[in-house]
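Quick review question:
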């Protein structure tokens, strides 16, 4: 799973519109500073260290920091890949999206971005109640999160819509975890983002 995320994230990027700043394999400068990863040994963690981050180290960071530490492994296995991918992409918002979804499914949990006993139990019940739909529902909720983010922050729209007007990386990424039946058609997508023009 982590290797697939590294592939999705790509190599070194330092986009001024990305609040995460410099990233490599999706690992941000902030994460590297938190971990004290001064790879060039100059006493400071900078964009130069981000650029030097090897792929296998990024995979380890993802597994430790974004899968095991937030307790994604305690959720039903069907959710692991999509919640893990979103945790890397959006931090604790990945869990908040799940918790909002669980509440809409009648499973009362706090929306705090933390996987605790109640969220684990609620996700287990939801997986039993809707085994064929839970992953799609989460993926659709992810897609809606990206749209809402782009609605609020015009600088982020380039991640949701290409220059040619088609589905951008955020939307394509969410739909990787949604059954094709629930993918937006190009026209549905264009109608959804029409207000951005």
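Suggested answer, residue by residue:
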């Amino acid at each position: 799973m982590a290797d697939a995320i590294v592939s999705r994230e790509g190599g070194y990027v330092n986009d001024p519109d990305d609040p995460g700043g410099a990233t490599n394999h999706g690992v941000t400068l902030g994460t590297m500073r938190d971990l004290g990863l001064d790879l060039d040994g100059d006493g400071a963690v900078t964009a130069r260290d981000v650029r030097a981050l090897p792929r296998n180290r990024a995979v380890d960071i993802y597994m430790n920091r974004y899968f095991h530490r937030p307790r994604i492994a305690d959720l039903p296995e069907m959710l692991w890949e999509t919640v893990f991918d979103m945790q890397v992409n959006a931090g604790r918002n990945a869990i908040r999206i799940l918790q909002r979804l669980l509440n809409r499914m009648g499973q009362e949990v706090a929306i705090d971005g933390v996987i605790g006993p109640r969220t684990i139990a609620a996700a287990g019940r939801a997986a039993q109640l809707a085994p064929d739909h839970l992953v799609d529902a989460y993926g659709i909720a992810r897609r809606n999160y990206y749209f809402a983010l782009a609605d609020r922050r015009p600088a982020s729209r380039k991640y949701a819509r290409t220059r040619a007007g088609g589905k951008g990386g955020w939307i394509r990424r969410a739909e990787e975890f949604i059954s094709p039946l629930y993918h937006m058609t190009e026209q549905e997508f264009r109608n959804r983002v029409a207000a951005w023009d």
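Why it works: Strands lie at 23-24, 27-28. The mean pLDDT is 95.
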